[in-house]
Amino acid sequence: MKNQFISTVSHELRTPLTSISGSLGLILGGVTGNIDEKSRHMLSIAKRNADHLKLLIDDLLDIEKLIAGNMPMAPEEQGIGTCVTAAIEEIQPFAKQRQVRITLRDGSPGLTALFDSIRLKQAITNLLSNAVKFSHERSEVLVDIESSESTVRILVKDQGIGVPESFRSRIFQKFAQADGSVTRGQGGTGLGLAITREIMTKMGGSVGFNSAERQGSTFWLELPLT
Predict the structure, then answer these.
(1) pLDDT tens digit sequence for 160-188
(2) How far apart are alpha carbons 71 and 171 in whole angstroms?
(3) Which residues pair with 218 in a beta bridge?
(4) Residue-wise DSSP of 141-172
(5) pLDDT above 60: residue 21
(6) pLDDT in tens, 81-126
(7) Cα-trace Rg, the chain
């Protein structure tokens, strides 16, 4: 009943929010005529919050689909580097807003694996988003691609606050967020890492992390090589 309730409410919220966000975008684009700076500022805040709510609802729908086994996967043999680059490009506006630099170090160019590019990019973006979110201003997030004989790893390393010891055992659980004003103040549903774990499991891969409090964290995704 709980899962059905979450799914129903999420679907019912998504449609009006999409309409609100689209209408605000049209107004900001000048379709209804010129608007003064004060109005533009307020409308921009409204659109940003509407878009944020839509992302939260998408997370709720994704986790419900993944748990129910209804999330479509279309794995193909393709290049790892291309997918990682696309994820970095997608998160760049958020990183620039937070004044965080993202650097890709591809130690194994040309690697291919069997994966769904949309879902893997979603998993990488989740890790990048967290890394940027918990990084200090003017710091750097490093993205490495490493391989062994049978696997490839995508590592996302930040210089942020690290994962508290008390939170590590439940970090991949649904709706999990670390205690404390610093972490909870960053927002989110606590579903990003749970979704990432489900995605990687369904593609035959895994996710993990290493962290030291106040010394940053390294999260990684691992896939078998074809």
Answers:
(1) 989 888 888 889 887 666 555 444 445 55
(2) 22
(3) 157, 210
(4) EEEEEEE-SSEEEEEEE--SS---GGGGGGTT
(5) yes
(6) 999 999 999 899 889 989 999 999 988 788 999 999 999 999 999 9
(7) 19
Beta bridge partners of 224: 151
Burial 48-66 (b: 16+ CB within 10 A, else e): eebeeebeebbbbbbbbeb
CA dihedral 60, 57, 99, 84 (to 10 degrees): 60
171-176: long-range pairs with CB below 8 Å, 24+: 171/209, 172/196, 172/197, 172/207, 174/63
Predicted local distance difference test score (pLDDT) of residue 16:
87
Q: Which of 208, 219, 226, 201 is nearest to 120 (CA)?
A: 201
Burial 161-198 (b: 16+ CB within 10 A, else e): bbbeeebeeebbebebbbeeeebeeeebbbbbbbbbbb
Q: Provide the β-strand partners of residue 87.
A: none
SS (HEC) of 51-70: HHHHHHHHHHHHHHHHHHCC
Q: Could you tell me whether strands 151-157 and 217-224 are parallel, antiparallel, or unpaired per DSSP bridges?
A: antiparallel
* Amino acid (one-letter) located at 130: N
The H or E element containing residue 221 is strand 217-224
State the number of CA atoms in the 13 A half-sphere of 196 facing the CB: 28
Identify the three-state secondary structure at position 44.
helix
Structure tokens at 39: 């109005």
